[in-house]
Design brief:
28% helix; 159 residues; Fusion Protein Consisting Of Minor Coat Protein, Glycine Rich Linker, Tola, And A His Tag, Chain: A, Domain 2; alpha+beta
Length: 159
Amino acid sequence: MKHPNMLAAFVAATVLSSSAYARDSLIVQASPSVARWTAEISHSLDHNLRYPHTFGGQVPEGVVTVAFDCSDAGLPSQVTVVSPSRFASLDREAVRAIKRLKSMHPLPLGVSDGQRFEAEVFFADSENSLHRMQTAARQRQQLASRDPTILKLAVHAAR
């Protein structure tokens, strides 16, 4: 049986420079650019994300919005679904993929631990479905009021 193509897109938030002392010398780790950081997080999320099994030939499609913080250790924390899809299996998978991120460090310049992130995860069975969902999401974002405490950045991953 052919597995459905899994296409996912993520919307997350932004970015901190990191420095550390080692023995008597100062080691400075350069912060990645926003583009590089989002590409790395996108790759990690894509690697963690699995399209849930289908039942009775039905391939569930939907969009899940998940909010989370970055802990001092660089791990996602306080992971919660803020806008569920119509399928609990998609919601669980989006949360699972975010919780499995190994590290969000180093964060880009200007973002600190404790920053609120939001990921919009698209589960689509085809390029056309993904395009339709992304267009609807952009329209919703234009109508919605923006919360200045949540930084957002578009991140796309496909499988």
